[in-house]
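Morning. Coffee machine broken again, so started the prediction first thing and wrote up yesterday's gels while waiting. Chain of 410 residues, entered below exactly as on the submission form.
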Amino acid sequence: MAHFYPFHALMPTPEKVSRVAAVPYDVVNSEEAAVLAEGNPLSFLRVSRPEIELAPGVDLYSDEVYAKAESNFRRLCKEAPLVHDREANLYVYSLKMGDHVQLGLAGAASAEDYDKNIIKKHEKTRKDKEDDRARHVMTLRNHSGPVFLAYRDSSKIDSLVAEVMKNPPFFSFTAPDGIEHKLWKCGEAMSKEISAVFENEIPCFYIADGHHRAASASRAAASCKAANPAHTGKEDYNFFLAVAFPASQLKILPYNRVVHDLNGLSPEAFLAAVGEKFTITPAASPEPAGQGTFCMYFQGKWSLLSPKFDLSALGVIQKLDVSILQDNVLSPILGITDPRTSKRISFIGGIRGTAELEKLVNSGKGAVAFSMYPTTMDQLFDIADAGEIMPPKSTWFEPKLRDGLVTHSF
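Came back before lunch.
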């Protein structure tokens, strides 16, 4: 069964939380992070993206980057300040984006559960990114970015969360992007009660986002265990920061594709090749209305691509929209055989909208763009349950959790 524990969070004061809170390190590049942190010495991006305070072009994996992360973290602990919660708590975390509200619980997940696949995965991780996050975690001795978990809905947990929310929130602020964030301390007794429900009723968690953070937490736990001859399994390093949400509340947006060239094909030859597998018709909208179809932006107009082949015969991975596009267009026609490593394709999160696809193609930075229908939570669960791996860039969750609200020290 899934284990989810209260912990003594390291957190900013309510007066400073809006200045400390920052978007996750992996949704912005160095230039974007620098702009977001400009004029705000308390921004957590100075810890998660410390290169923004170093010379342009610095090697992101160099010693000085991790040293700067550590010094900025120590400074932030003093100047914000960041203070350890005297109680071991779970924390209700509410995010509101427009009319959409999702309620999660921040707590300490188990590295052993990750190793035993009680925390299920659906993506492959890259060693260089694992190495980076593992070193960052071990340098700080702190899990600063939460792993985003999902679980199958529990009415009992929902009712306990609702009970906690009858009290005033500990944090409440609206971020510059308009997303409202609130956080409640559950209290020791309620935290233990919620934790027991997870252990008795929730068989597993699913990683929605944060595979590299989870993998690095597992590596950090193994490293600390190996260095501790008195290891008991109860040490803080055996756990990592996570926020867990009931699946029905999560919002997956599409992860769209832009290909930079036509793989040497003329426009006519490209369209003819696509037309062998798909019926091409004018699109009523730049977004597909259902699974199995795609919208393509090419030569200044949107077209709808409808498969000419039977989708029902495809396997659980092959019938994902991202797989259908990859297997029938991107690989055989455009030569994108490995989308994980190819420099000829860009992935655009759905939060940027289809206007971003038009902009990239119209500017000449892309030759053709594809608007996708979102992957569903049921598909994610089915694939993780089957022990399978999704194609890269299959899901984009919004709203994004903020770094810095609560962190987990060890």
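The chain has two domains: 4-252+398-409, 255-373. Going to sketch it on the whiteboard this afternoon.
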